[in-house]
Design goal:
This protein has five helices and four strands. It is an alpha+beta fold. Strands 2-1-3-4 form a four-stranded mixed β-sheet.
Protein backbone atom coordinates (compact mmCIF):
# COMPACT_ATOMS: atom_id res chain seq x y z
CA UNK A 1 0.00 0.00 0.00
CA UNK A 2 1.45 3.36 -1.11
CA UNK A 3 2.46 5.89 1.46
CA UNK A 4 0.38 9.07 1.74
CA UNK A 5 2.98 11.24 0.01
CA UNK A 6 3.34 8.71 -2.74
CA UNK A 7 -0.40 8.57 -3.23
CA UNK A 8 -0.51 12.31 -3.56
CA UNK A 9 2.32 12.28 -6.06
CA UNK A 10 0.64 9.44 -8.03
CA UNK A 11 -2.64 11.32 -8.17
CA UNK A 12 -0.86 14.44 -9.28
CA UNK A 13 0.99 12.50 -11.99
CA UNK A 14 -2.25 10.94 -13.22
CA UNK A 15 -3.97 14.32 -13.19
CA UNK A 16 -1.14 15.98 -15.10
CA UNK A 17 -1.07 13.17 -17.64
CA UNK A 18 -4.83 13.51 -18.10
CA UNK A 19 -4.49 17.24 -18.52
CA UNK A 20 -1.71 16.79 -21.06
CA UNK A 21 -3.77 14.28 -23.01
CA UNK A 22 -6.76 16.60 -22.86
CA UNK A 23 -4.67 19.50 -24.14
CA UNK A 24 -3.32 17.28 -26.94
CA UNK A 25 -6.83 16.17 -27.91
CA UNK A 26 -8.04 19.76 -27.79
CA UNK A 27 -5.13 20.93 -29.92
CA UNK A 28 -5.78 18.22 -32.51
CA UNK A 29 -9.47 19.08 -32.48
CA UNK A 30 -8.70 22.78 -32.99
CA UNK A 31 -6.29 21.96 -35.84
CA UNK A 32 -8.86 19.72 -37.49
CA UNK A 33 -11.54 22.31 -37.02
CA UNK A 34 -9.28 24.96 -38.57
CA UNK A 35 -8.62 22.73 -41.61
CA UNK A 36 -12.34 22.06 -41.97
CA UNK A 37 -13.03 25.78 -41.73
CA UNK A 38 -10.37 26.61 -44.34
CA UNK A 39 -11.72 23.91 -46.69
CA UNK A 40 -15.22 25.27 -46.19
CA UNK A 41 -14.01 28.76 -47.03
CA UNK A 42 -12.25 27.50 -50.17
CA UNK A 43 -15.33 25.55 -51.20
CA UNK A 44 -17.54 28.58 -50.55
CA UNK A 45 -15.22 30.81 -52.58
CA UNK A 46 -15.19 28.33 -55.48
CA UNK A 47 -18.96 27.96 -55.34
CA UNK A 48 -19.35 31.72 -55.25
CA UNK A 49 -17.00 32.20 -58.21
CA UNK A 50 -18.80 29.46 -60.14
CA UNK A 51 -22.17 31.06 -59.41
CA UNK A 52 -20.85 34.48 -60.37
CA UNK A 53 -19.47 33.07 -63.63
CA UNK A 54 -22.82 31.39 -64.29
CA UNK A 55 -24.67 34.64 -63.60
CA UNK A 56 -22.30 36.55 -65.90
CA UNK A 57 -22.90 33.98 -68.65
CA UNK A 58 -26.66 34.17 -68.15
CA UNK A 59 -26.51 37.97 -68.23
CA UNK A 60 -24.44 37.88 -71.45
CA UNK A 61 -26.84 35.44 -73.07
CA UNK A 62 -29.82 37.56 -72.06
CA UNK A 63 -28.15 40.71 -73.38
CA UNK A 64 -27.31 38.88 -76.61
CA UNK A 65 -30.89 37.66 -76.92
CA UNK A 66 -32.23 41.19 -76.43
CA UNK A 67 -29.68 42.59 -78.92
CA UNK A 68 -30.47 39.92 -81.51
CA UNK A 69 -34.16 40.56 -81.02
CA UNK A 70 -33.68 44.30 -81.47
CA UNK A 71 -31.56 43.76 -84.59
CA UNK A 72 -34.17 41.39 -86.03
CA UNK A 73 -36.95 43.89 -85.36
CA UNK A 74 -34.87 46.64 -86.95
CA UNK A 75 -34.24 44.50 -90.05
CA UNK A 76 -37.92 43.61 -90.25
CA UNK A 77 -38.88 47.27 -90.00
CA UNK A 78 -36.38 48.20 -92.71
CA UNK A 79 -37.69 45.44 -94.97
CA UNK A 80 -41.29 46.47 -94.30
CA UNK A 81 -40.47 50.11 -95.00
CA UNK A 82 -38.60 49.14 -98.18
CA UNK A 83 -41.56 47.05 -99.34
CA UNK A 84 -43.93 49.90 -98.55
CA UNK A 85 -41.80 52.34 -100.55
CA UNK A 86 -41.57 49.84 -103.39
CA UNK A 87 -45.35 49.47 -103.47
CA UNK A 88 -45.72 53.25 -103.47
CA UNK A 89 -43.29 53.53 -106.38
CA UNK A 90 -45.06 50.71 -108.18
CA UNK A 91 -48.45 52.35 -107.69
CA UNK A 92 -47.09 55.73 -108.77
CA UNK A 93 -45.62 54.13 -111.89
CA UNK A 94 -48.92 52.43 -112.64
CA UNK A 95 -50.80 55.71 -112.25
CA UNK A 96 -48.38 57.39 -114.62
CA UNK A 97 -48.80 54.61 -117.17
CA UNK A 98 -52.57 54.82 -116.92
CA UNK A 99 -52.35 58.58 -117.27
CA UNK A 100 -50.64 58.05 -120.62
CA UNK A 101 -53.99 56.94 -122.01
CA UNK A 102 -55.07 60.57 -121.82
CA UNK A 103 -51.82 61.93 -123.21
CA UNK A 104 -51.77 63.49 -126.71
CA UNK A 105 -49.06 61.07 -127.91
CA UNK A 106 -50.74 57.92 -126.54
CA UNK A 107 -51.44 56.65 -130.06
CA UNK A 108 -47.76 56.99 -130.95
CA UNK A 109 -46.76 55.16 -127.77
CA UNK A 110 -49.18 52.34 -128.59
CA UNK A 111 -47.85 52.00 -132.12
CA UNK A 112 -44.30 51.88 -130.77
CA UNK A 113 -45.22 49.14 -128.26
CA UNK A 114 -46.98 47.17 -130.97
CA UNK A 115 -43.99 47.45 -133.28
CA UNK A 116 -41.65 46.14 -130.58
CA UNK A 117 -43.99 43.31 -129.61
CA UNK A 118 -44.41 42.17 -133.20
CA UNK A 119 -40.65 42.31 -133.78
CA UNK A 120 -40.10 39.80 -130.96
CA UNK A 121 -42.44 37.20 -132.44
CA UNK A 122 -40.60 34.58 -134.53
CA UNK A 123 -43.43 34.13 -137.05
CA UNK A 124 -44.46 36.15 -140.11
CA UNK A 125 -48.20 36.22 -139.34
CA UNK A 126 -49.04 38.12 -136.14
CA UNK A 127 -52.10 39.14 -134.18
CA UNK A 128 -52.41 42.28 -132.06
CA UNK A 129 -54.84 42.56 -129.18
CA UNK A 130 -55.60 45.77 -127.31
CA UNK A 131 -58.28 47.32 -125.12
CA UNK A 132 -61.57 48.07 -126.74
CA UNK A 133 -60.86 51.79 -126.22
CA UNK A 134 -57.55 51.44 -128.10
CA UNK A 135 -58.77 49.46 -131.10
CA UNK A 136 -59.44 52.64 -133.09
CA UNK A 137 -55.70 53.44 -132.93
CA UNK A 138 -54.93 50.45 -135.17
CA UNK A 139 -56.83 51.28 -138.31
CA UNK A 140 -56.23 49.33 -141.50
CA UNK A 141 -53.83 52.04 -142.57
CA UNK A 142 -51.79 51.75 -139.36
CA UNK A 143 -51.80 47.94 -139.58
CA UNK A 144 -50.54 48.15 -143.15
CA UNK A 145 -47.74 50.51 -142.13
CA UNK A 146 -46.87 48.26 -139.19
CA UNK A 147 -46.75 45.23 -141.47
CA UNK A 148 -44.52 47.07 -143.90
CA UNK A 149 -42.04 48.32 -141.31
CA UNK A 150 -41.90 45.01 -139.44
CA UNK A 151 -41.84 42.79 -142.54
CA UNK A 152 -44.68 40.74 -141.07
CA UNK A 153 -48.37 40.34 -141.69
CA UNK A 154 -50.00 42.09 -138.71
CA UNK A 155 -53.73 41.91 -138.00
CA UNK A 156 -55.89 43.12 -135.12
CA UNK A 157 -58.05 40.70 -133.15
CA UNK A 158 -61.72 41.64 -132.92
CA UNK A 159 -61.81 40.43 -129.33
CA UNK A 160 -60.62 43.20 -126.93
CA UNK A 161 -57.92 42.45 -124.37
CA UNK A 162 -58.70 42.60 -120.67
CA UNK A 163 -55.73 44.83 -119.83
CA UNK A 164 -55.30 48.34 -118.45
CA UNK A 165 -53.24 49.52 -121.42
CA UNK A 166 -50.50 48.52 -123.82
CA UNK A 167 -50.89 45.56 -126.16
CA UNK A 168 -50.58 41.80 -126.60
CA UNK A 169 -49.01 40.18 -129.65
CA UNK A 170 -49.58 36.55 -130.73
CA UNK A 171 -48.33 34.30 -133.46
CA UNK A 172 -50.84 32.94 -135.99
CA UNK A 173 -52.15 30.03 -133.85
CA UNK A 174 -51.92 32.18 -130.66
CA UNK A 175 -49.56 29.78 -128.93
CA UNK A 176 -46.81 32.36 -128.52
CA UNK A 177 -47.55 35.52 -126.58
CA UNK A 178 -45.57 38.73 -126.20
CA UNK A 179 -47.14 40.64 -123.34
CA UNK A 180 -46.56 44.38 -123.49
CA UNK A 181 -49.52 45.30 -121.30
CA UNK A 182 -48.94 48.12 -118.82
CA UNK A 183 -49.23 45.95 -115.72
CA UNK A 184 -46.78 43.34 -117.03
CA UNK A 185 -44.33 46.01 -118.19
CA UNK A 186 -44.46 47.56 -114.74
CA UNK A 187 -44.09 44.17 -113.03
CA UNK A 188 -40.97 43.46 -115.10
CA UNK A 189 -39.46 46.70 -113.83
CA UNK A 190 -40.34 45.89 -110.23
CA UNK A 191 -37.11 43.95 -109.74
CA UNK A 192 -35.21 46.95 -111.09
CA UNK A 193 -37.04 49.24 -108.67
CA UNK A 194 -36.29 46.83 -105.81
CA UNK A 195 -32.58 46.72 -106.70
CA UNK A 196 -32.48 50.50 -107.05
CA UNK A 197 -34.15 50.93 -103.68
CA UNK A 198 -31.77 48.47 -102.00
CA UNK A 199 -28.78 50.38 -103.35
CA UNK A 200 -30.27 53.63 -102.11
CA UNK A 201 -30.82 52.20 -98.60
CA UNK A 202 -27.27 50.80 -98.42
CA UNK A 203 -25.87 54.14 -99.59
CA UNK A 204 -27.82 56.03 -96.94
CA UNK A 205 -26.67 53.58 -94.22
CA UNK A 206 -23.02 54.18 -95.14
CA UNK A 207 -23.37 57.95 -94.65
Amino acid sequence: MPLPDQTTMLCRAIREKGQAEARDILARARSKAQKILEQARETTARDLERKLAQKRQEAYQEARRITDGAELKAKQRVMAARQEILEELFEEGRERLLALRQAPDYARIMRSLASRAVAILPTENCWLQVRREDMSIFSEKILTELSKTSGKNVKLLDEPADISGGCLAFNKDRRILVDFSFDVLLERNKSFLRELLSQEIMTSEDK
